[in-house]
Design brief:
The chain is built from three helices and no strands. The chain is mainly α.
Length: 75
């Protein structure tokens, strides 16, 4: 059952590398603007830093997966 689900999700997983790079640069710029103003007492600022960091890490993971898939010979 889990194998069928993973293969079905793998069929639909087709990220666009250009969109991922735009998300990476946008989140990196936003994080660079937010970190010097580290107001950790403000819950909205903390949420923004956490969300931006999550977007940055997600973009890096997606690009790393795309590079790994490109280097791996397909069956």
């Amino acid at each position: 059952m889990a194998n069928a689900l993973l293969s079905r999700l793998g069929d639909y997983y087709d990220p666009d590398p250009r969109a991922t790079v735009v998300c990476l640069f946008g989140s990196a710029f936003t994080l660079a603007m937010m970190l010097p103003i580290a107001d950790l007492a403000n819950q909205y600022h903390t949420f923004g830093v956490f969300g931006t960091t999550l977007a940055l890490l997600g973009s890096v993971a997606t690009l790393a997966d795309l590079l790994r898939r490109r280097e791996t010979p397909s069956d």
